[in-house]
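Entry type: protein chain
Record version: 2
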Amino acid sequence: MQLLQRAAELADLLTNTVNGGASVGFLAPLARADALAWWEGRAADVAAGQLAVWAACDGEQVLGTVSLAFPDKANSRHRAELVKLMVAPEARGRGLGRGLLATAEAAAAAAGVTLLHLDTETGSPAEQLYRSSGWTPVGAIPDYAADPGGVLRPTTIYYKRIPATALTR
């Protein structure tokens, strides 16, 4: 997927996700122009190999996305952070989130990543997905981030070990 070619659809997904109440790092109401600028700002990281982005699409509509952020330090190249797993509200319950998660995990393994980590709002629906997909909770940090309404919420940190493959990045 070319990020800039899908930036408008990704912006729609981000706007709908945040304005629908999901905590993915933005406050509501999120303007589409701000969401578009945010996605366009990720293009340099993708080009540099520091970010990988996948999207689940139905024609021109992006129904979901997930990303892996790769550290730039030599002592951290064995790990990556799973970021911005989002599924459009109208597409939830179809297994897209699980499929996107599996895609990111497989890509991590293919890139030689053996440890993934993420953070998510404690008590969010995403926690069930992560737990049922073999992710291990480390603990919760109180008042870590504001939800889309601006209320400080706890965040739970998760990790997952990924079996090494013969491929490396």
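Comment: The domain at 3-161 is CATH 3.40.630.30 (Aminopeptidase).
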